[in-house]
Amino acid sequence: MASDHAGFARKQAVMAWFRAEGIRFADLGCYSAESCDYPEFAHAIARAVSTGEYPLGITFCGTGQGISITANKHQKIRSALCWNTEIARLAREHNDANICAIPGRFVTDEEAVAIVKTFLSARFEGGRHQRRIDAIPLDCTGGSTS
Ligand code: RB5
After folding, report:
1. Cα–Cα distance measured from residue 39 to residue 71, given in angstroms and rounded to the nearest whole number
2. Architecture of domain 2-134
3. Which atom in ligand 1 lies closest to the alpha carbon of residue 65?
4. pLDDT tens figures, 96-126
5. Which of the residues are catalytic?
6. Which of 6, 59, 116, 122 is least crowded, fewest Cβ atoms below 10 Å from its Cβ?
């Protein structure tokens, strides 16, 4: 779990649900609603997922954009902006997303929990989707990595 100040409240709501369900998680910050900068927390969770320390990440910022854009700079990260349950399901089934980025200012606590629940229960379909995912990294194109 990671957020900036704009996603802090939604993150608290999802963590409360995790605790109630007995789902283990780590909170990589931020730790209050005081203004802060999302890249710090995006890089922290992207590193934790990239190294395999955690299998999946859930992130929040105001729009979900900044924290997702930053996480996606890490080659092994596929961060998907998920603003409803259908998008969350497809992000796992088709994109094998390993981070679910939620727009904290545009969903309710209940919607955030439903999005996370769906993201965690959906499974990657593989097949043609695996071929597409294999073609995502810049170093698989033979072209420039800039
Ligand atoms: C913070 O005001 C806001 O810009 C941030 O949470 C996020 O929406 C950026 O993408």
Report:
1. 8
2. 3-Layer(aba) Sandwich (3.40)
3. 10
4. 999 999 999 999 999 999 999 999 999 999 9
5. 61, 94
6. 122
